[in-house]
Amino acid sequence: MYKVKISNFNLSTIADSGQCFRLNKVDEGTFNLITKDKFLRIKELPNNYYLLSCGKSEFDNYYSFYFDLKSNYVKYIKICNKKDKFLSKCIEYGKGLRILNQDIFETIISFIISQRKSIKAIKTSIEKLCKLSGKKIVNKYGVFYSFPDAKSILKMGKAKLKTCGLGYRTDYIYNFCNAVILNKINFDKLKNLNDEDLLSFLMSFKGIGIKVASCIALFAFHRVSICPKDVWINRVIQNEYNGRIPNAYIKYAGIIQQYWFNYYRLNH
DNA sequence: TGCCAGGCTTCAC
DNA sequence: GTGAAGCATGGC
User: Fold this and answer.
1) What is the mean pLDDT of residues A106-113?
2) Residue A43 and residue A33: Cα distance in Å, rounded?
3) What does the pLDDT average to over A170-193?
4) Residue A27 CA to chain centroid, in angstroms?
5) Residue A81 pLDDT grade (very low, low, confident, very high; cuts 50, 70, 90)
6) Cα torsion for A37, A205, A66, A227, to the nearest 10°?
7) Which residues contact A268 (CB under 8 A, 6 or more apart)?
8) Which of A36, A38, A211, A229 is labelled catalytic?
9) Which positions in strand B are less than 7 Å from the protein's CB atoms?
10) Which helix (H) or strand (E) holds A66?
């Protein structure tokens, strides 16, 4: 167990933000997080303290980066034009938001699943996938399942994979996993690509278009200028900004859109 | 119960 | 290059 103080951090907001799908509230102030094959229990304590089920070294080496705790969100928030009442409202509403650094493979599969699904439905599909092909994790908090790797997903076969409620996305996922094994894709090397090349690489796979590629680039590669445009963000841009993102926001458009998304999705 | 969801591919034009 | 049709399924 490790107790640590974290400022500008709100687990409920992050859990509802649609960037990760396995951070779940189990009780008021208590959350479970499964990333890849790791389980974490987090409990909120008074005065911005948190009790984590991991040790200090795991926190320093993994979760501090995962939750993007080294970034200064006050700096990001300052970009907001004070006259922009809409964004100010979104930022106030989304206080404690973080753009996570998630596992690349897990993020790719999760966002292929995400297309034309509600967040609730995405979570259901992902849990089924993990239960059918992930590794069992048993601890004092319960029974959980790791996020499977490409090999485990392929081993299931298409028919079983489809029972995760994937519909026409089944082939996309199956083919991507096949490519991972056959082409021996080195995910770490992708980190060296510039934004444009990274998006092109991701979009070379069937089932990954500009929106899904942008989500992957932002939520797994931390490309904070890339702005995924889904139905909600398009509505915001149309209804609040006359169809165009203000120039001042372009550098951190990925972060700005996350505040927009959180607010707009839950208030319209 | 019909409509919508963190869209993409395919096919006209 | 742009626009529209078709797509599987869960959740509300």
Assistant:
1) 98
2) 11
3) 97
4) 21
5) confident
6) -150
7) A235
8) A211
9) 4-10
10) helix A64-66
β-partners of residue A30 are: A27, A43
Q: Is A211 a catalytic residue?
A: yes
Residues 6+ apart with CB under 8 A from A173: A109, A112, A113, A153, A161, A166, A207
Q: Which two tokens stand for residue A72?
A: 């200064």
Measured CA A219 to C1' B9 distance, in angstroms: 24
Q: Which structure tokens are listed for A149?
A: 């790797």
Query: Using CA atoms, how far apart are residues A61 and A3, in angstroms rounded to an integer?
Result: 15
pLDDT digits 0-9 by tens, A51-77 = 999 999 999 999 999 999 999 999 999
Average pLDDT over chain A reads 97
Among candidate residues A183, A136, A133, the one with its CA nearest the CA of residue A163: A133
CA–C1' nearest nucleotide, residue A124:
C10
> What is the token pair recorded at A265?
């999705």
Residue type, A59: F
Neighbouring CB atoms inside 10 A of A183's CB total 8
CA atom of A79 to C1′ atom of B7, Å: 30
> What would the two tokens of residue A121 be?
């439905």
For residue A34, the cross-strand partners are A39
> Edge-to-edge, what's the strand order for the sheet holding A38-45?
A2-5, A49-52, A38-45, A30-35, A23-27
- Please give the torsion angle defined by the CA atoms of residues A237, A242, A248 and A249, in that order, rounded to the nearest 10 degrees: 0
Whether the full predicted model's pTM is greater than 0.85, yes or no, is yes
- Nearest nt (C1') to A232 (CA)? B6
Per DSSP, the three-state class of A254 is: helix
pLDDT for residue A180 is more than 90:
yes
CA A204 – C1' C12 distance (Å)?
Answer: 35
Residue A143 main-chain phi, psi, to 5 deg: -115, 130
pLDDT of residue A235: 94
